[in-house]
Specification:
YjbR/MT2646/Rv2570-like; YjbR protein; alpha+beta; 4 helices; 6-stranded antiparallel sheet; 33% strand
């Protein structure tokens, strides 16, 4: 069970209007100016926007894979260790993070992953 960074980047390409911004030690991802994710190559981790209840559930269920990153604006961000998650689960979490930031008309154009 593990997701390669290339596979994570392919997941992002299935979503509409994703904007990438590179910093020295991480990449960030936004949709129409609203941030929904981060990627840290050095640690092979991803930070994703989630609801507060989903953040709490993920961390409680599998603290070896998920950890609290921070909370802001009524959302809970989680750090995901790519070596501990399967692609299907990460695909759903990436979509949910994107959906929480995307405008409604854009979400209507991109169906959730099967």
């Amino acid at each position: 069970m593990s997701v390669a960074s290339a596979e994570f980047h392919r997941m992002l390409k299935t979503l509409a209007d994703v904007e990438r911004s590179d910093a020295k030690e991480w990449e960030s991802y936004s949709v129409r100016g609203k941030r929904f994710g981060y990627y840290w190559p050095r640690t092979q981790t991803v930070g994703l926007k989630q609801t507060l209840s989903e953040q709490e559930a993920l961390v409680a269920e599998r603290p070896d894979v998920f950890e609290v990153q921070f909370t802001a604006g009524g959302f809970g961000w989680v750090v995901v260790h790519l070596d501990g998650i399967e692609a299907d689960e990460l695909t759903e979490l990436v979509y949910e993070a994107w959906r929480l930031s995307a405008p409604e008309e854009l979400v209507e154009q991109v169906p959730p992953p099967c």
